[in-house]
Write a structure and sequence with these properties.
With 322 residues, the protein is of the alpha/beta class. The protein has 14 helices and 11 strands. The chain folds into 2 domains: 228 residues, Aldolase class I (TIM Barrel, Alpha-Beta Barrel); 76 residues, no CATH class. Helix 2 packs parallel to helix 3, helix 3 packs parallel to helix 4 and helix 8 packs across helix 14.
Length: 322
Amino acid sequence: MNAITTLFGIQYPIIQGGMVWASGWRLASAVSNAGGLGVLGAGSMYPEVLRTHIQKCKTATAYPFGVNIPMLYLNIDEIIEILIEEEVKIVFTSAGNPKTYTSHLKSKGITVVHVVSSLKFALKAQAAGVDAIVVEGFEAGGHNGRDETTTLTLVPLVRENIRIPILAAGGIATGAAMYAVMALGADGVQLGSRFVASHEASSHQAFKERVVAAQEGDTKLTLKELTPVRLLKNKFYEAVTALYAKGGTITELQTLLGRGRAKKGMFEGDMEAGELEIGQVSSLIHEISSVSEIMKHLITEYRATQQRMQQLVLPPRSTDNV
């Protein structure tokens, strides 16, 4: 047991990211059934659709699960009330001020976790009273921090200054990476991209196949003037790059992005005109697997790495050589 497994009442300190167009009830319940914490991604769900996913998740698993809500959501107040009505026990908030809803949610007995991309926002989240934070390096897929601070730097920086439990995110898809960030001070991990390439993810099969085909350098962080997002390169990404090259304005970028671009790519399967949000670590993901296989591999590799590192411990230096 550690701070994260105790907080959530789960077996392993492995949390599945609440990703848009991927994190429905099938994925969330499968992760929870495998010993981690599954999370529904409310960012791509209308309020009543979310309610349905919560109810189906309750039926599909007897274990804890959570819901991720981007705080820029237009129906945020309605979403909050649904979470309370459906007695959701764990809520991850992102893309907004944690002060807005943390106290209200906690007054209803809900555990609140906030996603941050910098020490500045980690301190604000702690001051707002959240129970834990997700510290997300810029390797992560989807919407991201503007400072481009890597997970390797961000986790120990936040650990030095934060008292509450920390989940590391961004660039983590293996048990070895899980071991590394926990060695740096994280109490657990949140994985997004690895679970996109699962049979249970609700994202389109063509997107999953594109993820496992990705090579080094195939993703880029862009659209910082709007909301920074890491994308796989395709015709839409090339159009964004071309617009930057000719000095496009924010308004022109907004027009190019339009509405529903992420749904078009990740959910409907348009691999050229769609927005394909995924992390750098996609180049390390080589197959679409079941959630149970992914979880088993993560734990097995974590334990193997732990043993290997014990064998690599440096011997103490003789005082004569100091």
